[in-house]
Amino acid sequence: MNGSVPDLLVVGGGAAGLVAAQTATGLGASVLLVERARTGGDCLWTGCVPSKALLAAAHAAAGARDAARFGVRVGEVQVDFATVMSHVRDAITTIAPVDSPEALRRAGVRVEHGTVRFTGPRSAEVDGRPQPFRQAVLATGAAPVVPDVPGLGAARALTSETVWDLNDLPERLLVVGAGAIGCELGQAFARLGSRVTLVEAADRLLPAETPAASSVLAEAFAADGIDVRTGVSLAEVRTGLARLTDGTEVAFDQVLLALGRRPRTAALGLDAVGVELSRTGHVVVDDRLRTTNPRVWAAGDLTGHAAFTHTAGVHGSLAASNALLGLRRTVRPDLVPRVTYTQPEVASFGLAPEAGARLHTVPHTEVDRAIAEGRTRGHSTLVLDDRGRVVGASIVGPRAGESLAEALLAAQQGLRARTVAGAMHAYPTWSDGVWKAALAQGRVDLAAAPTRQVIAGLVRARRRFLAR
Q: What fold characterizes domain 8-143+262-333?
């Protein structure tokens, strides 16, 4: 360490802060990471890890119920919710050491627990103790939104942070919000045995995705017995009963709020350090993640960029390396993948298909792997610019998140669809949908008049050569 003044002060020990600190120490810098609670952040403790562990159990239950269509009969499916939650907690416990203060210290990071408040352009306090710094990365993340609805406080509504404290499966669960979190948890609890009502103010599920994707998921939710109410919001909550804005009422035992997240910036003293906030409370950053104080950078959810763990990790690396090396690496908001891990999965990035210059969609009734597994509900869509380069994709179906990676890499490298089509793909895989969408553009290119004229000329020339 270089005295008591670190080269980089990292505020927050979630995904963005962890990667920023590890990147900085890897570059030879002295680093102080301060976390007010526990390292690992929302992803480890209340987000990605527990939700995917819960979904694994829920999908296993649904698979057992669905097995009869393949001629496999397992009898009545029984869910032991206590064991399900034990599995969830075991997953957290297994992964936690990777993100622990001990692991960070072994990597050369100085770790302190406490609350940071900035006091000047190059100074801060940790629980009241002065802490100067040379540069800083803000990585305090975000917290669930809790709306001001009459009676909601008395209902002791759950959020994505507190739902993991449940010991008993709710018989009737009201989920408010049908974004990724609401859809994942809503389907999980429905498949585990809760009677789920899902309420969304927009006119469809997953309003950030394409209407076609929303439609496929709505069909799946109907099959799961989920009561989906779109175009309505929560108006009032009484004991065991919620009134919606359309006047209808929903009985519940538990309410789960999934209405987005607000940045954790209020208590940082950012005025003192000269860091500007947006109207929504997010830290204002440029495309290099630098704030309005050139010595302070920000990464992850509090920037207002897509609130995903992978976004936060990339942000942390980019902010730390730009800060310490004076690089000018920039973020690419158009190349951020998003995946909703329902069944079917919904994965996308880039331009919405409606805005694309060209679209090629392959229904999964034309994907042999989907036919073999009896899961043809879904599709793969590639979005191409006017030069035939991949600029976006939307995939609905099993393994959609994995299938998306090929399209994302093509977009990052500026590849045309014909390049994707020209690569040999294993058969049969779920990514056949992406490949076939790329092949469709290849057929369009071949059918173009100039291309057909060139091909015809080559055929005639070859014919004359062979006639000699």
A: FAD/NAD(P)-binding domain (3.50.50)
